[in-house]
Every structure is written in structure tokens, then in C-alpha cells.
Design brief:
CATH architecture of the largest domain: Orthogonal Bundle
Helix content: over 70%
Radius of gyration: 24 Å
Largest sheet: none
Low-confidence stretches: none
Oligomer: single chain
Mean pLDDT: 83
Distance between the termini: 7 Å
């Protein structure tokens, strides 16, 4: 297993190098000069040329790339062209916000999706099965932005149950320690703030969780139906074991492998696709951070944001591969 993990980690190197090169070239194909965007349309040619020289944009692309790559090898993500702050200093707060939102959304998707799929398979062709699969189809089909806006209008504007924007109450801001607000409020014993933070999470998390929840529910149902037709399930039932024990102790363990694959893929997609949710709910995550950077042609921020998301995505896939052998000892990696 350790040999396999080491081999996979070594494979990350060419993948991430390729990612840095592709992103580097694509963002430089975006129309617009960063120097002109920063200085404004009224800037003189001399001022634009001076800023380009200061930012190193007057160098050939390959010199810029190797300069950027050399910085990465030393842990330097560069400096934001817009804020003049090192990217490594300011990016964590945005990444933490996205991680908190994505993890909360994935927990909702797993808990609801897996159990809905199990119950649908358990009571196949029942009213619950048909209802759950209709909701799953709707969940895959409905755009996130529409669902988010409807959630804001219903639960925020009409019912006034939940906040519709931001991560916290601006009148009583959370003292950031880790920038994971749920953890920070628990560390400080501010359970009143914890409730407020959770309320802010509910609407964006449900909007973000809808698609993975539906996909997980459908995959779980399909996988469980196949496993429940197995001989060992019929044998367990013949021995008098309760159906609940048969499903959650025996059948689910054998049906979870394809579901785990979907969960890993969806977690990576949540990190990369949270930008719509973050925009609608004014969530200060890495998606909005990169989006704003694109508007200002802030190359170091765009490169670093995409690279970090790509790294997390690849690591999630590695963790999923490792979990395969943990769940099913028959799977061995050499």
C-alpha cells in the first residue's frame, strides 16, 4: 500500500506541471492587458509600459513561465497584481470558506442521498421509490443559480427564516483563527455565533448539494438493487436477520464502492464548481476570489487558485482509491 501511495504521489508531479503550463498559457490568451486594467483606461502609454516592466509582463512568455515555476518550487505563489499582497498570505481565508461550504454540502449530499437510495432499493417500486427518483431527476436538472435564488426568495425574503448572503453576522463578526468558522466558533466557545454560522451555511449548502445528492441517490439505489439480489443477502434473510441489519451491515458494505467513486468525483466538482453558489450568496470563497481575479487579469491569483483546486481534486481521487482497499480487503494495490 505504501509503495502504491508513493507511486501515485510521484505521478502528481507531471500532472501538476502540465496543469501549471496549460493554465499559464490559457489565462494569457484572455483579452486585455493587466497593466491597463489596473491603471484604468485613462493611463498613459508610459505608465502602462512602466507597470508592465515592474510586473515582468514585458518578458517573453517562457521566461515568465519559468520564473513562476521557480517560485512554486520554493513555495512562492507570487504576489497579487491588484492588492500587492502575496497570494499565499491571502488565499487561505478564501479556500477555507470554500472548503467549509463544500464539506457541509457533501455531508448533506451523502447523508440524504445514500439513505434515499437505500430506502428506494429496499422498497423498490413503492411510492417512496418513485418520489425519490423524481426528486433525483429534478435535482440533476434544476440549475444551481435558479435553486439558489428561489431559496433566497422563499426562506430569506418571504419567510425570513435564514440569511441569504455572507458567512456571518456583520454586527458580530467571527474572530478568525483557522478561517473555518464552524471550528473557530467551537474553539472560542461562541455557540451563539456557531448557530449564526450554520444558518448562513444552510441555503448555499443545499443549493450546492442538490446535484451530487441526486447523483449519489441514483447510484446508491442502482448498486443496492444489484447487491440485494445476491445469494448472501437471501441467506442472511433466511437465517432470520432483520432487514435493517442485512442492508446496513452486509449489503451496503458491498454496494458502497461505486458510490464512493461518485462521491470522490462530486467532491472535486464541488470545489471547482462552487463559483455560482458563491456569487449568488456573496460567499467569500476561492471561486469568487478567482472570478474577481479574472476580471482584473490578476495572473498570479488565477494560476494559484486553479492549481490548488487541481491539487485537492487529485488528492481526493487518491484518498478514494485508498478507501477502496479499506472497505473491501479483496482489493489489493501492488
Amino acid at each position: 500500500m505504501l509503495h502504491y501511495i508513493g507511486k501515485r504521489l510521484l505521478q502528481l508531479i507531471p500532472v501538476l506541471l502540465g496543469m501549471t503550463f496549460i493554465v499559464f498559457m490559457i489565462i494569457r490568451a484572455i483579452p486585455g492587458d493587466p497593466a491597463k486594467v489596473i491603471l484604468g483606461q485613462q493611463a498613459t502609454k508610459e505608465a502602462v509600459a512602466a507597470l508592465r516592466a515592474n510586473l515582468g509582463l514585458d518578458n517573453p512568455w517562457y521566461i515568465q513561465y519559468f520564473h513562476y515555476l521557480g517560485g512554486l518550487l520554493t513555495g512562492d505563489l507570487g504576489e497579487s497584481m491588484r492588492t500587492k499582497v502575496p497570494v499565499s498570505t491571502e488565499i487561505w481565508s478564501y479556500l477555507a470558506a470554500t472548503l467549509e461550504l463544500s464539506l457541509f454540502a457533501m455531508i448533506l449530499a451523502i447523508v440524504i442521498g445514500v439513505n434515499a437510495g437505500i430506502i428506494s432499493a429496499w422498497f423498490q417500486n413503492s411510492w417512496f421509490d418513485y418520489t425519490a427518483m423524481v426528486f433525483a431527476l429534478v435535482g440533476v436538472s434544476v440549475p444551481i443559480f435558479w435553486l439558489g435564488l428561489m431559496g433566497q426568495w422563499t426562506f430569506g425574503t418571504q419567510l425570513d427564516w435564514l440569511p441569504t448572503t455572507g458567512r456571518e453576522d456583520t454586527r458580530d463578526p467571527v474572530t478568525a483563527i483557522t478561517h473555518l468558522y464552524i471550528l473557530d466558533t467551537i474553539i472560542q466557545g461562541r455557540f451563539d455565533q456557531l448557530i449564526v454560522v450554520l444558518k448562513h451555511l444552510i441555503l448555499p449548502a443545499f443549493a450546492l448539494a442538490t446535484i451530487p445528492m441526486a447523483i449519489i441517490a441514483r447510484m446508491t439505489r442502482s448498486s443496492m438493487l444489484e447487491v440485494m439480489r445476491s445469494d448472501y443477502v437471501r441467506t442472511a434473510r433466511a437465517k432470520g436477520q432483520k432487514m435493517f441489519i442485512v442492508i446496513y451491515k452486509h449489503a451496503l458494505k458491498n454496494a458502497i464502492i461505486p458510490v464512493l467513486t461518485v462521491i470522490g468525483l462530486q467532491m472535486g466538482l464541488l470545489l471547482g464548481g462552487a463559483i455560482l453558489t458563491e456569487t449568488i450568496f456573496s460567499w467569500p470563497g476561492i471561486g469568487r476570489y478567482v472570478y474577481d481575479a479574472i476580471s482584473f487579469r490578476d495572473y498570479p491569483v488565477i494560476q494559484s487558485g486553479i492549481l490548488i483546486i487541481a491539487f485537492i481534486f487529485v488528492m481526493i481521487n487518491l484518498i478514494v482509491d485508498i478507501l477502496y482497499s479499506v472497505i473491501d480487503p479483496r482489493i489489493k494495490y501492488k
